[in-house]
Design a protein that fits this description.
Helix content is 43%, strand content 18%. The chain has 295 residues and is α/β, with parallel strands linked by helices. It has an eight-stranded mixed sheet with strand order 3-2-1-4-7-6-8-5, sandwiched between helices. It starts with a strand and ends in an 8-residue tail after the last helix.
Length: 295
């Protein structure tokens, strides 16, 4: 059995598309879809789908953060494989079929899908989203996966073998990174499925962009403390060592200039992350903020 968990909050405009993209999948295994959300508008949309699809389970999020919501769903999921995704994204046809295929190998503990930006490449932030997903994430995961090295799964779409991770720390900023590290520490392999496409809308204003990156990237500083595994796919030193690779992605002078700006902004971002977490020691609640422009 396959359990598909969708975490959502105030996503009544997108949750339907997320559910429909899953329902279109044609796989042999029995599937249950678990949606967890705290708000009535999103829940009301899910209830309409429940009328036609008995495989959909709706859970009430207690508003204690995404890690708490995931822990709640882990207790309810019945599947041998658990797929995690969000209510503001949608998957390509056959994404799930390709995602679960590597689990035929009993040593595989998790499989990561491939995020695709839906933002326009004609804007600076849109260009950044394509560069970071195509080069920073996709090419890095391909390279590391081929070498059999550790990769971090993307929270937009990934699958884990049931029973390996039953609970994560409630202050996890990057729950996907923490879960990936916990799985690797237990000796399981993490594979990449580049054909498992998930379409993502990234921030369209700088304030949201910085808030999202501080949250997700900053979570990597917690990995050793929360998972006990010091291996990571992302760090300031690793990012700095690969900085020259991003310039080949630009197609014109405008994109080349946007790439230079991104490098400077990423440096500024790492400084802010260090200051917030190591100097000011900001709480989970202050760092974890909702990114409105991605909805």
């Amino acid at each position: 059995m396959i359990s598909i968990i969708i975490t959502a909050y105030k996503e009544e405009k997108t949750i339907g598309r997320a559910i429909e993209s899953i329902l279109q999948e044609k796989i042999k295994e029995k599937v249950e879809i678990i949606v967890i959300c705290p708000d009535k508008p999103t829940a009301d949309v899910v209830k309409e789908y429940q009328k036609k699809h008995k495989s959909i389970l709706l859970l009430k999020d207690k508003r204690e953060g995404k890690p708490a919501a995931l822990n709640q769903t882990f207790k309810k999921a019945k599947g041998d494989i658990i797929i995690l995704t969000d209510g503001d994204v949608y998957i390509e046809k056959d994404a799930i079929k390709n995602l679960i295929m590597p689990f035929k190998d009993k040593n595989v503990g998790a499989v990561c899908g491939r995020p695709i930006s839906t933002n326009s490449r004609d804007t600076m932030l849109g260009y950044w989203s394509h560069l970071l997903t195509d080069v920073g994430a996709h090419e890095t995961r391909l390279r590391l996966s081929k070498k059999g090295k550790f990769i971090v799964c993307s929270g937009y779409l990934y699958a884990i073998r049931s029973g390996i991770v039953n609970e994560i720390p409630l202050n996890s900023l990057s729950d996907d990174a923490v879960i990936s590290s916990m799985i690797a520490k237990k000796g399981y392999k993490i594979q990449y499925s580049p054909k498992s496409l998930v379409y993502v809308k990234y921030p369209s204003n700088f304030k949201d962009w910085m808030a999202q990156k501080k949250r997700s990237t900053g979570g990597y500083l917690q990995i050793k403390e929360l998972s006990g595994n010091n291996t990571t796919m992302r760090s300031f030193s690793k990012e700095a060592s690969n900085v020259l690779n991003v310039f080949s992605y630009s197609k014109n002078i405008k994109e080349f200039l946007w790439t230079i700006i991104l490098i400077l902004v990423r440096l500024y971002m790492w400084l802010l992350i260090f200051y917030d977490q190591k100097i000011k020691k900001k709480s989970f609640e202050k760092i974890w903020v909702r990114i409105e422009s991605t909805k």
